[in-house]
Write a structure and sequence with these properties.
Layout lengths: L8 E3 L7 E3 L5 E3 L3 E4 L2 H12 L4 H15 L9 E8 L4 E7 L9 H6 L18 H12 L4 H4 L1 H9 L1 E2 L2 H9 L1 H5 L2 H7 L11 E2 L2 H13 L2 H4 L2 H12 L6 H5 L4 E3 L2 E5 L2 E5 L6 H11 L4 H4 L4 H21 L10 H4 L2 H9 L28 E8 L5 E9 L45 E5 L2 E9 L3 H15 L6 H4 L3 E4 L4 E4 L5 H9 L4 E2 L7 E7 L6 E5 L6 E4 L1
Parallel strand pairs: 17-18
Antiparallel strand pairs: 1-2, 3-20, 4-12, 4-21, 5-6, 5-13, 6-9, 7-8, 10-11, 11-14, 12-13, 14-15, 15-19, 16-17, 19-20
Helix pairs in contact: 1-2, 2-6, 6-10, 14-16, 14-18, 14-19, 16-21
């Protein structure tokens, strides 16, 4: 007798390598699809596609909606990055929409105030918000709709209210004390001094008003107009460094994505100041091992992934910085020859303790990356365009500071700068910080194959690799690859967290060879992805069960 409540066991990919239970089925569509961490935001993007917009239009609409429905993770007070495949020109383009340090921000200034590191909250952690300009430039280059059109779903959610979903309600509650410490934040984001519980309807008239200004006046309303003045006034009132001139001078940067070939798949990431280069270095290192033969039931499988991660992140800690200020050794980090030398440093029978960069020039401490609250989204349309898009405030509700009655909570991305005057990532005027948020894209035989990302602070590069290994080496489909158990390794503490479905024998052996296992929750990231089927041209999407999200298509 069958049990109707149990999910079917589904084949994991084109190459049958076994069977795997999934949390949900792959979402399949022909004309367009959106995958992200909140269902209402996915519907906002889908609405734009149904109105005739393309994947670029849908991506910005989804990001704007997420600002309303998942406000602790993202917003116009933060930064964005995107990689897009533009079908008409057959090109892959990247945009760096990250903001810069204030023009008066220096190591000397902060150390004179008694700081040994940039604060993780408050006005001194704030950098210029880059998201709005990034949205605008992306639409101008490749969209078919105006900013006013794609902002409409977000405006409606903010004005009419939306029911707060479960994971997001928990994250909101986690930021209660931070929000309560700033009067503007408390007024904007709390209900009677409390975080809104799951299922409650939350309205945000202040943010709705600001989004309407952007719809009517464009990006200049943020960087030159009333919003800019409100941000400067709040910064001045709190003794901050951000000024109206810092906002007025901001612009995004179009970049050529960096890439490497992994077993016949070309994997693309945004170049530094983002950490995506570490994912590519990890893949180069791991290409020398038969991971499919080992499989996830083998301790050796996990050991190799973690050791490759340690080496790549050691390079990040020593060298990742704004390339306008420091010559990041990207070519060497991405070379296959360097990956061979890195493999020689891996002891297959012992965990490394404190690996240094293989190209270090000075001995520097590991970057203190905390868990980040970020949103990732992917979109694809009927014409062949695909977008990989990420938007973030860094930690939950960023700095905790809201600019007056604008509904704009300011990011705390400046917390990732160093106050070590020797470090390439030291804080300097007009400099972009070490950045954790990274979108990714993959082509196969020259055709777009996968738009994907995994939000979550320093988890992102290591999770990108885990997802790709699941698909390419283990043959999992686009949903199963995100459902599968993941690890999180902390470089600073040299500790390893494994999700609970990774078995006891694996854990015992990893501990025996020197891995320091710890219990962690909430650090394994949130995955979203869209794959284009090469034979049918159908769109296949997956969404992480660790988040509230969903994929929606038509």
């Amino acid at each position: 007798m069958s049990n109707s409540s149990s999910r079917p066991r589904v084949r994991t990919g084109d190459r049958p390598t076994g069977w795997l239970s999934q949390t949900r089925s792959v979402v399949m569509a022909r004309n367009g699809v959106v995958a992200t961490s909140q269902p209402l935001a996915a519907q906002a993007g889908l609405r734009i596609l149904l109105q005739g917009g393309n994947a670029i239009d849908a991506a910005v609409a989804t990001a704007a909606a997420l600002n309303v429905v998942e406000p602790m993770s993202t917003g116009i007070g933060g930064d964005m990055f995107a990689i897009a495949y533009l079908h008409k020109s057959r090109e892959i383009v990247g945009i760096n929409g990250s903001g810069r340090a204030p023009s008066s921000a220096t190591v000397e200034k902060l150390t004179s105030l008694g700081f040994t590191r940039v604060p993780s909250t408050g006005i001194l952690s704030v950098t210029v918000p880059g998201a709005v300009d990034g949205w605008d430039q992306l639409l101008r280059r490749a969209g078919t709709m105006k900013l006013s059109q794609v902002l409409q779903p977000a405006i409606e959610y903010a004005e009419e209210g939306f029911p707060v979903s479960e994971v997001i309600a928990w994250q909101w509650e986690e930021s209660l004390l931070k929000l309560a410490s700033d009067p503007d934040s408390a007024r904007t984001w709390l209900m009677d001094g409390k975080a809104p519980p799951a299922g409650s309807v939350f309205k945000n008239p202040a943010l709705a008003s600001t989004l309407r200004k952007l719809a009517e006046e464009g990006r200049d309303a943020f960087y030159l107009g009333e919003v800019a003045r409100a941000i400067e006034e709040k910064a001045l009132a709190l003794g901050g460094l951000l000024s109206a001139s810092d906002l007025a001078s901001h612009t995004s940067t179009w970049v050529e994505p960096i890439h490497t070939n992994y077993r016949g798949y070309e994997v693309y990431e945004i170049p530094p100041n983002g950490q995506g280069i570490a994912a590519l270095e990890m893949l180069n290192i791991l290409e020398g091992y038969d991971l499919a033969r080992l499989g996830p039931d083998s301790p050796g499988f996990w050991h190799l992934l973690v050791e490759a991660k340690k080496l790549a992140y050691a390079d990040l800690s020593a060298h990742l910085a704004d390339p306008s200020f420091y010559q990041v050794p990207a070519e060497q980090m991405l070379s296959k020859e360097y990956a061979e030398r890195q493999r020689d440093r891996i002891d297959r029978g012992r965990a490394a303790t404190e690996p240094l960069s293989g190209i270090a020039v000075i001995d520097l401490a590991a970057a203190a990356m905390e868990e980040g609250d970020t949103v990732y989204l992917a979109t694809a349309d009927q014409w062949g365009n695909m977008v990989s898009f990420i938007n973030s405030l860094y930690n939950g509700f960023g700095s905790g500071i809201t600019a007056g009655n604008t509904g704009v909570v300011l990011q705390n991305r400046g917390a990732l700068f160093s106050l070590d005057p020797r470090h390439p990532n030291r804080i300097e005027p007009g400099k972009r910080p070490y950045h954790t948020i990274i979108p990714a894209f993959v082509t196969r035989e020259g055709r777009p194959w996968l738009s994907f990302g995994v939000m979550g602070g320093d988890q992102q590069s290591q999770a990108h690799v885990q997802v790709l290994v699941n698909m390419i080496d283990l043959g999992m489909n686009v949903q199963a690859a995100g459902d599968a158990a993941r690890f999180h390794h902390s470089q600073a503490a040299n500790t390893l967290a494994l999700e609970t479905s990774i078995g006891g024998p694996v854990r015992t052996e990893l501990e025996r060879i020197g891995h320091r296992l710890v219990q962690e929750t909430g650090t394994f990231g949130g995955y979203q992805a869209i794959m284009r089927n090469s034979t049918s041209d159908s769109l296949l999407a997956g969404s992480d069960p660790r988040k509230d999200g969903a994929a929606a298509g038509y």
